[in-house]
Amino acid sequence: MTHTREDAIMETTVTTFGKQKFVTISKPLALFLCLLFVGCIVGTALLVYHLSSCQELSKVEESTLVVYNKKYAETVTTTTEIPPFSESEEVVTTTEENNVKSEVEDVRLPRHVLPHSYDIKLVPFIVEGNFTFHGEVMIVVNVTVTSDNITLHADDLIIDNVLVCEHLTNKFLSIRQVANETKRQFLIIYLNEPVEAGLQYYVSIKFKGVLNDLLQGFYRSSYKDNGKVRWIAATQFQATDARKAFPCFDEPALKARFQISLARPKNMTAISNMPQIGTPEPVDGLPDYVWDHFQQSLPMSTYLIAFVISDFECLKNGTFSVWARRSAVSQTKYSLQIGPQILEFYENFFGIKYPLPKVDMIGLPDFSAGAMENWGLITYRESVLLYEEKVSSKGSLQRIAHVIAHELAHQWFGNLVTPVWWSDLWLNEGFATYVECLGANSVNPHLKELDQFVINDLHGAFMLDALKSSHQISIKVNNPDEINDIFDRISYSKGAAILRMMQHFLSMEVFRKGLNRYLQSRMYNNAEQDDLWNTLTQQSHEDKVLDSAITIKEIMDTWTLQTGFPVVTAFRNYELDSVTLSQERFLVNSFNNSANSVWWWIPITYTGPGKAVKSTWMRMEPTIIINNLDLSDEEWFLVNVNQTGYYRVNYDQRNWNLITSQLLKRNGHLVFDPKNRAQLLDDAMNLASAGYLDYDIALNVTRYLKQEREFVPWKAALISLDYLYEMFVRTAHFHRYKNYLLALLQDFYKEIGFTEGENDPQLLVYNRFEINSRVCKLGVRDCVVNAVREFQTWKNSPDPDKRNLISENLREIVYCTAISVGGQEEWDFAWQRYLNANVENEKEILLMALGCSKEIWILSRYLEWAITENSGIRKHDSARVFAAVTSKKKKVVVAAGKHWQSAEGRARAGAGRWGGAGGGAAGARGQQPRGAHEQYDARRATTAHPARMFAAVTSNSIGQQLAYRFLKTHWNRLRSYLGASSMSLSSIVRSCTIRFNTQLEVDDFKMFLKMKENEFGIALRTARQSIEQGEANVHWMERNSERIIKWLSTVNV
């Protein structure tokens, strides 16, 4: 029905939405225009009076010219007789401020008009010199409350024509004015007669836009094929950018069905959420174009709409397809193999079949998030979708599996059932981040994915959540900057951690049954967290795993509506065989923890030597006592078994000594599960760092590492020890830290060596990467010589772009070490390899390694190129790489990898966890993704990667201050180049400031922030977190440095 009205003539109103573009005139001129066109006004009034059908309106139309003058606030309306739309010219560009208050609080659309379905037609022009698109959208709306206006979203669009027509009678409604409320990005259609409650109407809008280069909305991307630049058009709508592609009701709760038609050049292909229907049809006036029409979608949110027009090719596996550049399509085989397997695992896990007829996944050359879960058309950065044998590392296999698993999990959590508003973003990202581990584990069980969750997500969330400037999981957000700001580790990793905790206290069976009930009851609809709590409560009561007087909401609200997390202190009474447990909020600076009144429902699990695991609850109470432990005064006591709870644990000194003694016995550490060994190391070092525990006790725990061989505990330890590296690397006592770390590493280093075995298990490969990267970073001659020799062999080979014998799992170490000790010749060689590389994972590794140089002028030039068009550096990796690298050990930097930003996520792009051979969780305190998104996220961490370059440079102790000065000096350029609302800007701020540990540095940044606070936008929260972390670092140096130096001077490993 809507399709048959595509050529109806619409009211000719041209409105530009975006960056405060408007026409103003003086009062005398306005009066003159009124007199000049008074006849036209009268004529229009008579004409409108006689219009009673769509056919009659097509003869002559009313043109509403809104002229808003801030001084006189006068509006002039005129009429114009025009030919049909296809031949019409733009009349006037108008914008109306509509007297919006300076501080907009309510950014939600009114609910008097709701969308039922969309028919969208878009014609993109993907040619240099004309990156634009024309479009038409016909929206069928239901009116719930009689109203004299229809309000929806539009941003950065030119509105050409608007028409409102009543469905049953085909009667057009007279439009008084079409206005743009810029701050809220509202398109408001004011009517001379109201739309009536209970009736259905058509809203038809024709518009134009630009295929932007900011990787938002409907945007352009390019790549080179045999030296020729090829262009494509793609979309990224989460969270609030669908309105940049077509006028719409751009909120997650306002679901509708979408019918999409795309015009494309005949030599290209169009894909969208649903399968193509029919055969391509010619486009009038464009002989080189054809129309592709797609099936109408199921009810879905606008942010999940996607379409890509490209010359890509695909490989298929049934209804599953993976698309890539022609020269990279062979790299899609691994994704095509595991994608259907993970999808089938989720169908069984959730108990609901995937509802769409196909899945397309596509790797895009430029993409702001790590990946995006668009329903039926999942978009990715190339590096998290494509894998090339003997070039991509084993770590990238795990990374790809995780990102695919994350996005496929969203097909149920986020797409099938969607949060009502972005305040509950974590329902999307937290679930996807936790369930991705289950999905990835289903295809890679040998990687112990559920063990790695502890270091990759749980410990990572602790780092950010220990700051006072952290935020609740479920948090009120309004404007787009605030929404994008929460695609971080709190939404992703903390959300995942508390879900894992809940799964453990409910049991997996009850958890799955509750999830199935939740999804079945809310499918194709929206939900809030209380909907999930209610269904899980029902299930847990039916299965009798939860006291009938307790609800999931009562428990979980303490975790989602309160900021931070608790530290549980276990103080044993050895004579009475009891323990007193107390809770308080854990903060990075314990002396900032004033009178504590924040308590949580904490699921306590505990055990002792040879004892069964027991459990109890701390019910929002400051202390509890557990009697009859059945332990002697020489036996250790452990709380939070397998670290399933989202809390840290401290003990009295005697119990810490008992645990340490057990760890130091020959093979004594094997009594504890690897997850608990990772927990003990991470808890002890972070408790000491924050002032809850003596550093002598914490450092004593690390002594057992000489006999540790598991990846998860080692990774946890190295993250904490990396923090000491950051604090001491610029001090006169760094050698003491260096000597201690090498004493811990040397035996393991000798065992695993620098050379890989063909059949080495993947976790051994990870360990080799982690150990060798630290040893080379500390300048051990054997490691450095090995790295430089391999680099020089590659450099001297006759065809280095095709022949690289360096192990793909050690390339990050080799490249960074050789560039660090080399000069311009090594740097220029690596830069050329970067430009020539066809595998994105290899490009990422090279890009990171280029920041390892110690030549200040090279680093300065590198930063300059990062924000220079056509330098060879893409914008899209900024957010993800900055977030990833600020959280890793230096100087050898692990390539980024999560989908935050966003991210996913969002990011959502995202924080890196599986770079190179090893990867793993982040190292710098206060880390955060995105965002991705996922996005990761995560809401998120797309020409090459400016933020990645900044992160690479700041990973170098020389580059840290250089990058900070560059940030301040080129602040306006950064904002202009990346976009003021870019998550990349937030990541750059973090990388340049997170390692401050002197008051001078912190004060300087405070002053800069004070001067530029209104310009920080989405990066403001990040800046405040960096200041808080910097102040914590300063206090840490004052409180701990002398004591640690003394301990390091006397310890005998």
TrEMBL record:
Site keyed Transition state stabilizer: positions: Y492
Protein name according to UniProt: Aminopeptidase N
One of the protein's GO biological processes: proteolysis
Subcellular location: Cell membrane; Membrane
Residue ranges constituting the ERAP1-like C-terminal domain according to the UniProt record: 636-901, 948-1029
Reactions performed catalytically: Release of an N-terminal amino acid, Xaa-|-Yaa- from a peptide, amide or arylamide. Xaa is preferably Ala, but may be most amino acids including Pro (slow action). When a terminal hydrophobic residue is followed by a prolyl residue, the two may be released as an intact Xaa-Pro dipeptide
Residue spans crossing the bilayer: 29-51
Annotated Peptidase M1 membrane alanine aminopeptidase domain residues: 334-559
Gene Ontology CC terms: cytoplasm; extracellular space; plasma membrane; side of membrane
Biased composition annotated in UniProt, kind: Gly residues: 912-923
Origin organism lineage: Eukaryota, Metazoa, Ecdysozoa, Arthropoda, Hexapoda
Essential cofactor(s): Zn(2+)
Residue ranges of every copy of the Aminopeptidase N-like N-terminal domain listed in the record: 115-304
Annotated source species: Zophobas morio
Entry keyword set: Cell membrane, Disulfide bond, Glycoprotein, GPI-anchor, Hydrolase, Lipoprotein, Membrane, Metal-binding, Metalloprotease, Protease, Signal, Signal-anchor, Transmembrane, Transmembrane helix, Zinc
UniProt-annotated binding residues for Zn(2+): H406, H410, E429
Main location: membrane
InterPro entries, sorted: Aminopeptidase_N-like_N (IPR045357), Aminopeptidase_N-like_N_sf (IPR042097), ERAP1-like_C_dom (IPR024571), M1_APN-typ (IPR034016), Peptidase_M1 (IPR001930), Peptidase_M1_aminopeptidases (IPR050344), Peptidase_M1_dom (IPR014782), Peptidase_M4/M1_CTD_sf (IPR027268)
Top EC class of this enzyme: hydrolase
Protein family according to the UniProt entry: Belongs to the peptidase M1 family.
GO terms for MF: alanyl aminopeptidase activity; metalloaminopeptidase activity; peptide binding; zinc ion binding
Membrane disposition: Lipid-anchor; GPI-anchor; Single-pass type II membrane protein
Cofactor binding, note field: Binds 1 zinc ion per subunit.
Disordered, as annotated region: 904-932
Active site per UniProt: E407 (proton acceptor)
EC number: 3.4.11.2
CDD domains per record: M1_APN-Q_like
